[in-house]
Amino acid sequence: MMTNTYKNIISYFLGSAFCYLFVWFSGIVAAMPVPELLRPYHHFVISYYSNILLVLLAATFSCVVIVGVRKVFSFFTRQNLFYFALPIILFLAYLMAFFSLAVVPLLYAIVPTLLVALLLGIRVEKTE
Fold it and tell me: Residue 94: CA atoms inside 13 Å, Cβ hemisphere, count?
């Protein structure tokens, strides 16, 4: 049986891993080629294409990981959500303090991930 301390530590490490994945996802999306279908729309491609891909990739991956954590470890409550979000928020604060230009692309990955985690965490508490 896992104690709350172990669950919180796992949530914290999961949030720390997501901090690395946000940077990795933004690099992957920046390197993706634009499909031929969207190339005639220069304004759309320049402004929105990479951001939309980053939001979709981060939301999908976080949904899969959090549902997987719920299935394997049978937990993800509001307390675990706090420990999951803590390294992400601290990473964001660090970036805002020292690298203000790097914050904007990562926000497109951080916000959907935290929203998915919040929605799934609330859903778990309502079903229990």
Answer: 7
Which letter does DSSP use for residue 38 in this model?
G
- Provide the whole-model pTM: 0.82
Taking the C-alpha atoms of residue 59 and residue 65, their distance in angstroms, rounded to an integer, is: 10
Spatial contact of 34 and 45, defined as CB atoms under 8 Å apart = yes
Q: Token pair of 70, please?
A: 């719920």
Q: What angle do CA 16, 55, 68 make, to 5 degrees?
A: 50
- d(CA 49, CA 44) in angstroms, rounded, equals 7
111-126 residue pLDDT tens: 999 999 888 877 655 6
